[in-house]
Design a protein that fits this description.
It is a single chain. It contains 13 helices and 14 strands. It has about 475 residues and is α/β, with parallel strands linked by helices. It has a single domain, classed as TIM Barrel. It has an eight-stranded parallel β-barrel with strand order 1-2-3-4-5-7-11-12, surrounded by five helices. The protein has a two-stranded parallel ribbon with strand order 6-8. A hairpin with a 3-residue loop joins strand 9 and strand 10. The longest helix has 25 residues. It is globular and about 65 Å long. The two termini are about 15 Å apart. The structure holds 6-O-phosphono-beta-D-glucopyranose. The site of 6-O-phosphono-beta-D-glucopyranose (BG6) has 15 residues, from loops.
Length: about 475
């Protein structure tokens, strides 16, 4: 009973949220590098190139690029078995369409993977986590089929280079945010559904081809999809509300349907017909999608939504999904995200019932404001409670429901910048980083109480959760 032997305990980050060094060693700009931080009154701004005087959080982030050795040593001290991280595509192909890769970028990740492996930490790599080389804007980014080939050139380069070092890959982080945050997902700033669905189509095709490529380069490779684990509950038992919640889930799950089953579900094709949306299908594509289904499903899980008549499905650019209803049964984080541990077990059941594929939770955590005491200690019982409650539900999904879960990499084991707001004060980490919302600080790392708690969780393989 309990977590299986070999369970991949660890943490997850994304290059643009932790590395910094945005223009070092030949790196090109990415879509993340032209996003400012949000303010209390406005969302993150996407600027036309880098504008002097504006603050871009990705430029220095938490300086993981230079401090990865120290950071990975701290992960090892907690006993990590896995580190989910992303490669910044524009470190490898600075403009996205370059003929040859940037050796300095390749070398950097060689060193990062070697450091992980030296500690027995399995690197799990997201190929594209909310950033696309800015140089691909001239093609219209993912709305242009050419970008599929550029992406595959990048995939072939890294699959070949890191053969034997990396065997777990994820293609696109939270692919379904194409419907909610298209700039982050695909470098496309639009509210137009046809444009979003064209971008999504190219993602599907690229992912399917990348899966086949990864298998052909190394049969050991396993490639997963990465799903933003939205869950919708009906606002009431009114069958109309149940239908609304189901429609909401379809908007999200269709991404997983295509990547796990290899074809578009009928409900989506009917919707396209009604809305006049046309997919840019070419000969042979359908077979590619069928042959390139994923080996596993990875997903993030933070919150659940309540959907009813007063909260129609609304997707609003960078701000993501808005659904109006508060769940009276749940408390929320300081950022208003409902905290729903049972929803994690529910989602695991939804995904396993639907696809029967191995699952891995690659993001889950609490963004909270932390206080550094005078003696430097950081007491974060709220974070421990959040994670403990979620891990207990995860354990039930394994023990009681019989779901094969490969691992759990909590989000942001070290404080990093927030994706939605670009701020530092929304901290997820076991490790505190001394940087503020304007990027000022010493960048010094220190351990929070939760650091010692998670270390014990891993050491006991989840035996201390009661
Ligand atoms: C996920 C993303 O959506 O949520 C991460 O994959 C992100 O990149 C995480 O950081 C938490 O969101 P936020 O906005 O609190 O950083």
């Amino acid at each position: 009973m309990g977590f299986p032997k070999g369970f991949l305990w660890g943490g997850a980050t994304a290059a643009n949220q932790c590395e910094g060094a945005y223009n070092e060693d030949g790196k090109g700009l990415s879509t993340a590098d032209v996003m400012t931080a949000a303010t209390p009154d406005s969302s993150r701004e996407i600027t036309d190139g880098v504008i002097e005087g504006k603050y871009y959080p990705s430029h220095n982030a938490v300086d993981h690029y230079h401090r990865y050795k120290e950071d990975i040593a701290l992960f090892a001290e907690m006993g990590f078995k896995a580190y989910r991280m992303s490669i910044a595509w524009s470190r490898i192909f600075p403009n996205g369409d370059d003929e040859t890769p940037n050796e300095a970028g390749l070398k950097h990740y060689d060193e990062v993977f070697d450091t992980c492996l030296q500690y027995g930490i399995e690197p799990m790599v997201t190929l594209s986590h909310f950033e696309t080389p800015l140089g691909l804007q001239k093609y219209g980014s993912w709305t242009n089929r050419k970008v599929v080939d550029f992406f595959l050139r990048y995939c072939e380069t890294v699959f070949t280079r890191y053969k034997g070092k990396v065997k777990y890959w994820m293609t696109f982080n939270e692919i379904n945010v194409m419907s909610t945050k298209p700039w982050m997902a695909a470098g496309v700033h639009t509210d137009d559904e046809q444009t979003r669905m064209t971008g999504a189509y190219h993602h599907f095709l690229a992912s399917a081809k990348a899966v086949q490529l990864a298998h052909s380069i190394d049969p050991e490779n396993q490639v997963g999809m990465m799903y933003n684990g939205h869950v919708a509950y009906p606002a009431s038992s009114d069958p109309e509300d149940v239908k609304r919640a189901n429609d909401f889930m379809h908007q999200m799950l269709f991404y997983a349907d295509v990547q796990c089953r290899g074809y578009y579900p009928a409900y989506k094709l009917k919707e396209f017909e009604r809305e006049g949306i046309v997919l840019p299908i070419q000969d042979g594509d359908e077979e590619e999608l069928r042959k390139g289904t994923v080996d596993f499903i990875s997903f993030s899980y933070y919150l659940t939504h309540v959907v009813g008549e007063e909260s129609p499905l609304r997707f609003t650019g960078l701000n993501g999904v808005k659904t109006g209803y508060k769940n009276p049964h749940l408390k929320a984080s300081e950022w208003g995200w409902p905290i729903d541990p049972a929803g994690l077990r529910y989602l695991l059941n939804v995904l396993y019932d639907r696809y029967q594929l191995p699952l891995i939770v690659v993001e889950n955590g609490l963004g909270a404001k932390d206080k550094v005491e005078e003696d430097g200690s950081i007491h974060d019982p709220y974070r421990i409670d959040y994670l403990k409650d979620h891990l207990r539900e995860l354990k039930k999904a394994i023990d009681v429901d019989g779901i094969p879960v490969m691992g759990y990499t909590m989000w942001g084991p070290i404080d990093i910048i927030s994706a939605s707001k670009g701020e530092m004060s929304k901290r997820y980490g076991f490790i505190h980083v001394d940087v503020d919302d304007e990027g000022n600080g010493t960048f010094k790392r220190s351990k929070k109480d939760s650091f010692y708690w998670y270390k014990e969780v891993i050491a006991t393989n989840g035996g201390n959760l009661n």
